[in-house]
Amino acid sequence: GSCVDVDECSALSVLNTCGDLEDCNNVPGSFFCSCQHGYHPDPSGNCIDVDECSGHTSDCEQRCTNFPGSYNCDCYYGYRLNVDRASCYKVEERQCEAEEAKDCEHGCRLKERNAAPCFCRVGFTLNQDQHTCAPVSTCSNYGCTDTC
Question: In angstroms, rounded to a whole number, what is the distance separating the alpha carbons of residues 23 and 46?
Fold first, then answer.
């Protein structure tokens, strides 16, 4: 007779003793567990998160945020993440108008996280549409009883 390998890693197998953060690797006559991508074994063999940010192993150009099993890159104020999801490019102040196809009546400013809210000049207030401005009524602000 010939021997047939038992796949200890199959979903139906009760022989798979790998933990939640481990991958099961079937080999002829046996199997072994290895830590999933983004994890590494600690001295006792348990899989723990690789902190790519503190270990400077990420490819992030400016900021790095670690997550269990992974990480994300982010950019400083005034910069935006490139399509490579690692490097950053400088955002022009005038780009705020195009940021969300905004048509701001008085203007917009690039804010933290590259949001581009509209603003109104002194003496005006931003309307509920978040694009147009209305003159500030001094009567409504100061409780005047006179007709303005």
Answer: 13
